[in-house]
């Protein structure tokens, strides 16, 4: 039994993380720190979790004080820019830190500056911290003390694409991604734009050509392909709370069997991946609450394109579920302990 | 004042058509025929329209009998395959027929057979019946007695694309369209798949590579481009009732100003089109109940692509509103009489 | 043709008011004043209305300056407490003022203080300003220069109840009302509570025993009954944008025909009221966009209760539609000019 | 470890039951029988559960054959009228049967006939089968071999009311209940009425005065009160998938503390009950996926009424979660084994 802590639990992925860790068979949730709710009972804010967190109260989110807590594993569910501040003192204190923010996802300092509009506070760390997609990343990461969890859109896009670009089934050119996200992807927001009345009956694209997750998608694809890869990525908001559906189009002249063979080889019987038959498309409803990516491929011989459709729950496989999966593997526990 | 009639008013676009025609300043809604509701009051079935249709009852949907009704203009809101049966007797009886179905949208008999899986019953008519996007189609159609209204997805996609392929700003190669439709696009359905519980919290792609509207999109683009155009079209269902958002990606090396100049030239001050500034994307909420297509273009110089985002209300500009607009123009009435 | 103006058009009922007045056959929308958007084009904020408001820009919301505008009729879509400030200078300048706020709905200064938590700024006006439910209120109000429009919940509740308490079919005792409102009833809000993620999949009661609309409901019922009437009113939020459904239970030993006879007598062929058969219940979907209240009555002989179910569109019959209906009647125009 | 089976798993509560039992620490899900899907893999139909049910296939739903299966505990998630057919052979074969249908909920044959419109097939069983609300029912039921699980509406209504009528805090007169249910309450339906387009943006009452669950509510209240109790029950459909919110009004002249004292005494620290502070109302969102009823009481001293607001997840505490809780208690396992 290890003790675990969460910093920044008042958002949607924080809530799911509390829920998963409170029910985890190998971990005991000992500390939940919050920058805004210190002193309140956790279940007074995360009301749905009542009964799961006992008398646990939010602790102050002071990096130095938290480094002294008897917590073996920390999860950071903080905004980018903030997470780095917390991560380093905890790592220095010998803790394992699993970061759900974007702060350590990129290798390139320059890319970080371009996409996040600020210098990285500890750029020298960027290359050291592994970015872990547990089904794909080579096992070397399992010794790291600070681990970057992928973003939600990237998880849905990289899982199907990485094996294909690694094996050169796709050249890496002409990849067009349209992704549709439920509103929780934007976090818990005080704003008219994210209000019920504005988002219901509404679909729209946003972040044309410059969504931050693009940096992460291209960097990972480039590393797998061993050459630069460019992606045209257009995210959209759709009127549901949870779920991401990504539709990927890329030139491909081969047979769809080659695609499936590559996926089978990469993922075999992995519990976090479900391959659907060619010609069908996954439904976000089918992955709700599951730590799983569903995807399928279809070759349109008329146009010479491969069409991949992919679905995840952005709060599970796209965030908190995957973070717990990473912890499980890092600790040598069953991969899906505490997960479904 | 002309008398108008509708055949097939029990679906969603039929309902909107009844609503628009019941309030039209130049047309009097005299007959509403239904294959299932004959003898019932119209507002007993279309309950929201109570008070708008007076005592009007559904008439039997008998093509020959309807041809004898004193109705100047008929709208067909019928499934494909069925509409053709009704259209010809009415045209032969000297009526103007505006068909919302897919029966006369294509020019090519062969394409019809491929996409609709059956021989066209009156293939010789296909080339004679104009397909009318009122903002784009050359005015020659205004003498036709049988007019095909575009489909909902095609309207959202063709309006922005047609001027660009006509002027060769786009070569017609590499066009990738992802479109997201509200559930009413599928019609009024008795099925578990279209039930509330299955469609809420759900997004999924469907019809991979072979949606019927693709035939119409490619044929129209090909005619405007004066060469064959291939489109990779992937439709998606999203959890809202009304609205279509289309995101179009195509290779383009020029400046976005050229795109806007082409649109300005083609559409000028047309009331049915709203150009949004480059970098923004239209919201389906903003076109709800409006007979208008909103769209914008963005050139991603990094990738060499043009990204067009477009939104319509599938039941208005994508169906019934556009049908009324076509009637207005055909009759020489103000283009937006009875429309907003 | 009269000129009309709106003060406070950035909320949801303001938007519908702009839409209705921009399309009104007898009124010309000349001024739209806003406390936050002065200087911007109306359709840059109310984007769905693009094309309907031409070049019209928001004017500054300065009461004195507005009183000098050449506007015949003003609509106030302002928060309570604010509306009174604007109303008096406009009335003094000889304008007709139709107030959608709660500022002049009550007769009793004391009740206002209790429910609104502040002294009324011009309490001496309270008794002079008529509260107008156009289907029920005696025609004396048609000379007033300042008119109070009913609230949304009260409209759905009072229309069915007023004739029954006036005629003593109901004693006025034991009236229990549960009402369910779409989220737009709360206005356009910057808050986590009203965010999409919090309000979807959520139903909850609120304002137990003390919702402000209760004061208005009880005062009007008391006046019709000529004795004090107490109501147990519990409002609920439900996950939709528009619509209110109210379910009213009251002891009643008679036959349901007496109830319908009373309604027929009070409302006859009124276009704003639709009586549904006993045993059925209205659906908020059927009144969307309509300036109409649908209701029905059912006598449960087993329990000795009358159950009334009622539905309106809170933004139409519950706010802006009814305000336009009031203008129409006050000006001697057709009651439903510009309305459906 | 006991083996468990489910008959009738293709609906929404069946799906949740499969999910809960597949992850249960003390029970092994051995058989899932279906009247329509025999021979198919369970996760080909319940796609969200992929990975949880291994290779398990639906078995034929033949009562006699199922009685021979080596299954210790059966759950029936069948329509009323059908469940009885299956229950008896299984009980006779010495199995424990937990029935989620309405077939054994009532004591009175006559009431069954009135509300269900048919003679009960084995009326002599009605009095023998315990109706179990695990937090309230006296422990005598723990020896039964056939147990009736309460309906969803009744669970939300009875849990707060039963202690109060038992202790005569409420007289049992004048109880008015309005309840709002998500659409899954109606099951998986092939019908236009339950389609997404019809149920979104829609709220309506139904089953005025005669909903079947009323029989169960009144019978249980009557037994607790030791006198007949009449309830005015009006259910409503609201546009969400899961969740029930009930608002109960009853005459009460005492202090709210007496109500809370009664609840504390009856429920103490029960994990399936959460008492909220007086003046607040539970949100269905807070019980999503939880086997818990949240409720609170408010005394309106002005009107002399107690207002109880209550929320459950209709598929969890209102159906499958409660059924698993019943199994746990019946088997002497931890009450919340496999539940949250």
From TrEMBL, chains A, B, C, D:
Matches recorded under CDD domains: AGPR_1_C, AGPR_1_N
GO terms for MF: N-acetyl-gamma-glutamyl-phosphate reductase activity; NAD binding; NADP+ binding
EC number: 1.2.1.38
Keywords attached to this entry: Amino-acid biosynthesis, Arginine biosynthesis, Cytoplasm, NADP, Oxidoreductase
Pathway participation: Amino-acid biosynthesis; L-arginine biosynthesis; N(2)-acetyl-L-ornithine from L-glutamate: step 3/4
Annotated active site: 152
Catalytic activity: N-acetyl-L-glutamate 5-semialdehyde + phosphate + NADP(+) = N-acetyl-L-glutamyl 5-phosphate + NADPH + H(+)
Main localization of the protein described in the UniProt heading: cytoplasm
Subcellular location: Cytoplasm
PROSITE patterns: ARGC
InterPro entries associated with the record: AGPR (IPR050085), AGPR_AS (IPR023013), AGPR_dimerisation_dom (IPR058924), AGPR_type-1 (IPR000706), NAD(P)-bd_dom_sf (IPR036291), Semialdehyde_DH_NAD-bd (IPR000534)
Free-text function comment from the UniProt entry: Catalyzes the NADPH-dependent reduction of N-acetyl-5-glutamyl phosphate to yield N-acetyl-L-glutamate 5-semialdehyde.
Xref: PANTHER family: N-ACETYL-GAMMA-GLUTAMYL-PHOSPHATE REDUCTASE, CHLOROPLASTIC-RELATED, N-ACETYL-GAMMA-GLUTAMYL-PHOSPHATE REDUCTASE, CHLOROPLASTIC-RELATED-RELATED
Similarity remark: Belongs to the NAGSA dehydrogenase family. Type 1 subfamily.
Protein's recorded name: N-acetyl-gamma-glutamyl-phosphate reductase
Annotated source species: Oceanipulchritudo coccoides
Lineage of the organism: Bacteria, Pseudomonadati, Verrucomicrobiota, Opitutia, Puniceicoccales
Record gene name: argC
